[in-house]
Amino acid sequence: MSDYQTIDYSVTNRVATITLNNPKTMNAISQQMRRELIDATSRVAADDDVRIAILTGAGRGFTSGTDLSEGLTGYEKFTEQFQEEYKPIIKAIENSSKLYISAINGVCAGIGAGIALTCDFTVMADNACFYFPFAGIALVPDGGASYQLVQALGYKRAMQAYVESERLSAEFCLEKGLANKVVTADNLLQEAQAWAEKLAAGAPIAQKLGKQCMQRSLTGNLDEVLDLEARLQDIAGATEDYASAVAAFFNKQQPVFKGC
What we know:
Strand content: 15-25%
Structural class: alpha/beta
Shape: globular
Order of helices and strands: EEHEHEEHEEHHEHEHHHH
Largest sheet: 6 strands, mixed
């Protein structure tokens, strides 16, 4: 499966699966796991055979969040630890040319929720939840949790989720746009894999460029997004994938995308 100690890594049908795998701590995100996640996301980026990545957890939950037993593990401040060990994971997912699906089994807590919600898509088991315990242990949100909650829920509801250390159910997350799909717990990985393989059959260059358009829409104004779309459309329209897809359309065939 992999050479890692705290995660598993595998590739099937152009889909990479990264599994947090330390069930004894409910996949608490230790320093070792952070380093391995940095490496695994780099593998996703470098592997031309991978088009989609799934991030999930082994055992009864996705993750309990940071491994608090380790403290700052050699750093004087959390800022330093975050910049070196957490932010590279989050930015690798955000900036990846590949699409990421987080498949949430059980509880996904703390900074792990921030990482999972950075993924482009989220599939949740019907018994899963996002848990934001920060205020309950006298901390502020981290890992982008503030950003993700405000984007999905608006300021007032996001603030409530934080100060009340809420557990947001799968159905609530689906209703509010924090999740794309809710499936039975027994079928979570099968459903995520099937969706990932369907996405992997799509046009990878268009997916990469479309991701940039959607991300800019979160922070840019209409003029900025219009100009970006036009520039990226020039790139997409010059690909072999576009030419072959148009030909397939007129021939009433399914296009086969090669990523060029």
